[in-house]
Design brief:
30% of the residues lie in helices and 18% in strands. The protein has 503 residues and is of the alpha/beta class. It has helices spanning 132-144, 146-149, 173-187, 206-211, 226-229, 232-250, 280-293, 311-314, 320-339, 350-354, 360-368, 400-410, 439-444, 462-477, 483-486; strands at residues 5-6, 14-17, 43-45, 54-57, 60-65, 74-75, 80-81, 105-110, 116-117, 121-126, 156-160, 191-198, 221-225, 256-259, 264-269, 297-300, 376-380, 390-394, 414-419, 432-436, 451-452. A hairpin with a 2-residue loop joins strand 4 (54-57) and strand 5. Helix 1 (132-144) packs across helix 6 (232-250), helix 3 crosses helix 12 (400-410) and helix 7 crosses helix 14 (462-477). The protein is globular, with a radius of gyration of 24 Å.
Length: 503
C-alpha cells in the first residue's frame, strides 16, 4: 500500500497528507482514527498538541497552536497562528564551500562585456507608461516587416512597457530603483540591442538614463522621444528604421560554446502548495547547488517569502557583512510594511492556503529550499547588478512578476519557477522553466509545465530530479524553447517595483 502521509523531520509533531483522507481514516503513526477529513497536501497532528505549543515542520517552528489540537486533527488556519518567534542568525556558521564539479558547456550568445546570453532579442524599452503603446506599435510593426522578421539569429522584438516613470519623485528610493531596473534590462545579455523610447516630459528623463554611463558595451543602443520625433506615426516609422540598423548588428552574433559558469539563473516560486517544500523546491535547490559547483550563479529573492527562515541563509553567509546585509533588508521590510498598514505575515495567499500552507513561517521554510545548501556569496538590492558568482540573494517583493523583473535587471538570463497551484507566465527576454510540485496539477496543465517534480513522492530522489532540472537548464540555455515561450508569454510580465507615493 502506498504511503498516505509523509513526515519531513523526526522531531515534527505533524505529517503531510499525500491523498485526501476522510473522517475515521487510519493513518500509520497516529494512534486514533482521524476525527475529521484532511485534504491532500495539508497537515495533521501525530499526537495531541496543546494550545500555545510550537508546531514543527522540517524540524522548525511554523507557528503556535491557537487552540488544543487532537491527535489526527487537521492543522490549518483555524488552529495555527504565527505567534511570537525569535531567530538565531549565527552568521557564517554553516558557510561550507561545495566541492567543484567538472565544467559543462551550453550554446549562447557572447557579448562585448564578457556576458553570455541564452536568447538574442531586440528590446524596445520605455522610460514611462506614456510611451508604452508606441513601443508596442513599433514591436508589432517589426514583427510584420518581412526583412526584420526573417533576420537570422534574432528571437524577436520585445516591448518592455510598464505603468510608472512619472507621477513620482525624482530624488527618492523609488526613482533609484526604477533607474536600476531600466538600466539593468538595457544591459541584460539576452538583448542583442535596445531602443529606448520616452514621451519627453516624464520624471524619468531619457537623457538622465542615457547620461549615467554607457548602457550597452556593444553600442547597439538608440533612443528617442515621441515629442521630439514628431508624434506617434513619426516615432513608429523612425523606430522601424532604427531597428533595421540594430538588427543587422545583432544578427551577426550566433550561438557558440560557453561554460555554464556564464549562466545566471533566477530561482522563483509562485502558487505554492503543501508539496512545494517537499518536491520541486528542494529539487531546484539541488540543481542550484550543481550549477554553483560548476561556477554558475543562482539568485534567490522574494524577501516577504523568506521571512522567518532568513536564519537558514545568514548561517550560510561567507562574511559577516553579507549576513548583516540580509538582516538589514528584513528590517527594512518590517518598517516598510508597518508604515503602509501591512504586516510581514500577509502570506500565504488564499491559493497557498487551499494547497495546504498556513503561516508565512511554513511557506518561507519551503521557499528557502530553492536555494540549496551552497554558501551565500552576496546580497543585493532589487535590480542591482550581480557581481559575485555562486548562490546570491536579491531583495524583492514576493509578487512573482515584480521579483522576476528585478532578477532579470540584475542579470538573470534564465528563470526556473516552481508552482503547485499552476502559475502561468513567461519573462522575456529570459526563458522560464516551470516545475510542477505535484503530479495531479502537472497532468492537468501539461501544456504549461516543463518538468513534473510530483514523482518525488513516488520515490524519485531529490538528487535525480535536481540533475534532470540541470539538464533542462542547459538545454533551454542552448536554445530549446520552454512551454511558456511556445505559448507566447513574456510581453506583459515586466513589472518594476514601485516604492513611494504616486503623485
Amino acid at each position: 500500500m502506498a504511503d498516505v502521509t509523509i513526515r519531513l523531520h523526526a522531531t515534527d509533531n505533524l505529517v503531510i497528507a499525500l491523498t485526501d483522507l476522510g473522517k475515521g481514516a487510519a493513518v500509520p503513526g497516529v494512534s486514533v482514527a482521524l476525527p475529521g477529513p484532511v485534504p491532500r497536501g495539508h497537515k495533521l497532528a501525530t499526537r495531541a498538541i496543546a494550545r500555545g505549543e510550537i508546531v514543527l515542520r522540517y524540524g522548525q517552528s511554523i507557528g503556535h497552536a491557537t487552540e488544543d489540537i487532537p491527535a489526527g486533527g487537521h492543522i490549518h488556519s483555524h488552529n495555527l497562528g504565527m505567534g511570537p518567534h525569535s531567530l538565531d542568525y549565527a552568521i557564517g556558521q554553516s558557510a561550507t564551500p561545495l566541492p567543484p564539479l567538472p565544467a559543462r558547456e551550453f550554446l549562447g550568445y557572447h557579448r562585448a562585456d564578457g556576458q553570455v546570453g541564452t536568447r538574442n532579442y531586440i528590446g524596445i524599452l520605455t522610460s514611462v507608461n506614456c510611451s508604452g503603446s508606441v513601443a508596442r506599435f513599433i514591436a508589432e510593426a517589426a514583427e510584420k516587416d518581412p526583412g526584420l522578421s526573417a533576420m537570422p539569429n534574432i528571437d524577436g522584438f520585445v516591448p518592455i512597457v510598464h505603468n510608472t516613470g512619472c507621477g513620482m519623485s525624482g530624488v527618492n528610493e523609488g526613482y533609484d530603483t526604477l533607474m536600476r531596473t531600466l538600466k539593468g534590462y538595457a544591459r541584460n545579455a539576452n538583448f542583442g540591442g535596445i531602443l529606448l523610447v520616452g514621451l519627453g516630459c516624464e520624471v524619468m528623463q531619457v537623457p538622465d538614463l542615457v547620461g549615467q554611463g554607457r548602457l550597452r558595451p556593444d553600442g547597439n543602443f538608440r533612443y528617442m522621444t515621441i515629442q521630439g520625433t514628431g508624434g506617434t506615426r513619426a516615432t513608429i516609422q523612425k523606430g522601424l528604421e532604427v531597428l533595421r540598423e540594430m538588427a543587422e548588428t545583432a544578427s551577426k552574433v550566433s550561438r557558440a560554446p560557453a561554460p555554464v559558469s556564464k549562466l545566471i539563473v533566477g530561482l522563483q516560486c509562485g502558487g505554492s502548495d503543501g508539496y512545494s517544500g517537499i518536491t520541486a523546491n528542494p529539487a531546484l535547490g539541488h540543481a542550484s547547488d550543481l550549477l554553483v559547483r560548476m561556477g554558475g550563479t543562482t539568485i534567490l529573492s522574494e524577501t516577504p517569502e523568506i521571512y522567518g527562515a532568513e536564519h537558514l541563509l545568514t548561517r550560510r553567509a561567507t562574511s559577516p557583512d553579507i549576513g548583516e546585509k540580509l538582516i538589514d533588508r528584513i528590517k527594512w521590510w518590517e518598517t516598510y510594511t508597518a508604515i503602509n498598514g501591512g504586516e510581514m505575515d500577509n502570506n500565504p495567499s488564499p491559493g497557498n492556503k487551499r494547497g495546504g500552507l498556513t503561516t508565512i513561517l511554513e511557506k518561507s521554510l519551503g521557499a528557502v529550499a530553492k536555494g540549496g545548501t551552497a554558501p551565500l556569496s552576496g546580497v543585493y538590492k532589487f535590480a542591482e547588478p550581480i557581481t559575485a558568482p555562486g548562490f546570491v540573494y536579491m531583495d524583492s517583493p514576493g509578487y512573482d512578476p515584480c521579483s522576476v523583473t528585478g532578477q532579470i535587471a540584475s542579470g538573470a538570463t534564465m528563470i526556473v519557477f516552481t508552482t503547485g497551484r499552476g502559475s502561468v507566465s513567461g519573462y522575456k527576454p529570459s526563458p522560464c522553466i516551470k516545475l510542477a510540485t505535484n503530479t495531479e496539477m502537472y497532468q492537468r496543465m501539461a501544456e504549461d509545465m516543463d518538468i513534473n517534480c510530483g514523482d518525488i513522492i513516488d520515490g524519485v530522489s531529490i538528487e535525480t530530479k535536481g540533475a534532470e532540472i540541470l539538464e533542462k537548464i542547459i538545454a533551454v540555455a542552448s536554445g530549446e524553447r520552454t512551454f511558456s515561450e511556445q505559448l507566447g508569454f513574456g510581453g506583459a510580465e515586466f513589472v518594476p517595483w514601485q516604492i513611494g507615493a504616486v503623485m
